[in-house]
Amino acid sequence: MRLDRFLSETTELTRSLAKKALHRGEVRVDGEVIKNPATQVGEANRVTWHDEPLALVGLRYLMLHKPAGVECTARRTLYPRAIDLIDLPKVERLQPVGRLDVDTTGLVLLTDDGQWSHRVTSPKHRCGKVYRVTLDEPLAGQALARVVEAFAEGVLLDGEESPTRPAELAMREPTVAELTLFEGKYHQVKRMFAAVGNHVVALHRESIGPLSLGDLPEGEWRELTAEEIAAF
């Protein structure tokens, strides 16, 4: 890897600023001041900037218990971002693996591994996502049976050309549902219940595939274990 790229990958320096730091003699490779930005460095080399050792950031896999009022976006808006809750270097490289609306709480996965993210989100892998849905109107009896059947067959949402993939619905309480989806359309849960004449009051994602929040407090995050990463 070129030395200027290595610096931009391991510090907050841009490639342009990295070249200036090199020109000022601030960077050493194996103890020797190096000013040529095209110098090749690898894992065997010890690179320092202002005498602080630098190391490449590897691929990262995290889960976050997202609170309400936090957006899953890279751009800055009126709301704090999910990555603003994470204290890691180069945190802006982390991307959410399937987003949640700003008012939706629960499990968010974040990674800088694009292939892993695709495996989790691709509908063909049938990775179930379980939501706890609080409804405005209770569902029971024949009305519930009709909605369960409709969701299992697929619902044609407003503005869509094809129906949703089969989803699994069960009631925990008269106004609290458990919905399992195998895809992730825009505002899908809210739109599905709107299509059957109900309104979602609150929404919380409990799990993605085999991963659940467990006892992770709201607003906190943790790294996934090797076993959890390999589960997808």
From TrEMBL:
Q: Which SUPFAM superfamilies match?
A: Alpha-L RNA-binding motif, Pseudouridine synthase
Entry-linked InterPro entries:
PsdUridine_s_RsuA/RluB/E/F_cat, PsdUridine_synth_cat_dom_sf, PsdUridine_synth_RsuA/RluA, PsdUridine_synth_RsuA/RluB/E/F, PsdUridine_synth_RsuA/RluB_CS, RsuA_PseudoU_synthase, S4_RNA-bd, S4_RNA-bd_sf
**Broadest EC class?**
isomerase
Question: Is Transmembrane found in the keyword set?
Answer: no
Q: Catalyzes what? A: uridine(2604) in 23S rRNA = pseudouridine(2604) in 23S rRNA; uridine(35) in tRNA(Tyr) = pseudouridine(35) in tRNA(Tyr)
Q: What is its EC number?
A: 5.4.99.-
Top-rank lineage group of the source organism = Bacteria
**Keywords recorded for this protein, A-Z:** Isomerase, RNA-binding
Residue ranges of every copy of the RNA-binding S4 domain listed in the record: 1-58
Q: Which PROSITE patterns match?
A: PSI_RSU, S4
Membership in a protein family: Belongs to the pseudouridine synthase RsuA family.
Name of the protein described by the UniProt record: Pseudouridine synthase
According to its UniProt entry, this protein's organism is: Halomonas mongoliensis
